[in-house]
Specification:
The chain is mainly alpha-helical. About 65% of the residues lie in helices and about 10% in strands. A hairpin with a 3-residue loop joins β2 and β3. α3 packs across α8 and α9 runs antiparallel to α11. The chain is globular, with a radius of gyration of 15 Å.
Length: about 180
């Protein structure tokens, strides 16, 4: 199945990623249609991948780049820092209870909750660098992460003003990723 393939890629990436600061990395899949193709790291080392991401981005190199990026957020403790800044107790309880399905999806879409989960530009740039190195070390094409951002730009634009306030532009990211990947 597609999820089994992503689990195998996750195992490859995990073996080459920096150590998990909270024990071990885990992978979960969630159907979250309103969020679309997405992946995010939660405090504690869990990476959540939406079914839409698995469906829309089936290239193993792209998946490896995304997973490397998300594991970098965990290894650098970015998600914990953001949790302290913005996550409500309600979402924390839902995550701890293992319900990151409809409850989390609804909460993320309310107001600016999704934007509050966004990492800073520095965190994103750091995760891109570590993710590229990790996916390359695991034997994947590190430049494939650029494909993900190219597709996002084509299909979804730059993501609007909330995205732009916390993320480098997709064009800048694509250029940087390709440059870094060529140096591997």
């Amino acid at each position: 199945s597609d999820q089994d393939r992503v689990r195998e890629i996750f195992e490859d990436i995990q073996a080459h990623a920096p150590d998990a600061p909270y024990g071990t990395y885990t992978l979960q899949f969630r159907k979250a249609d309103k969020i679309g193709p997405n992946a995010f790291a939660l405090p504690g080392g869990t990476v959540v991948v939406t079914d839409a991401l698995v469906h829309d981005f089936g290239d193993p190199d792209v998946i490896a780049g995304i997973l490397g990026h998300e594991l970098a957020h965990v290894s650098e403790r970015h998600s914990l820092r953001q949790l302290y800044r913005s996550l409500s107790v309600y979402v924390l309880v839902a995550v701890m209870a293992g319900d990151v399905g409809p409850i989390l999806e609804d909460v993320l879409l309310e107001g600016s909750a999704l934007a509050s989960l966004a990492y800073s530009r520095d965190h994103e740039a750091s995760a891109d660098i570590i993710g590229i190195k990790t996916s390359h070390a695991a034997g994947y094409d590190a430049a494939a992460l650029a494909t993900f951002f190219e597709t996002l730009s084509e299909d979804y634009g730059e993501g609007g003003t909330e995205w732009m306030s916390t993320h480098p532009s997709n064009a800048a990211r694509i250029e940087t990723i390709k440059k870094l990947a060529a140096e591997q």
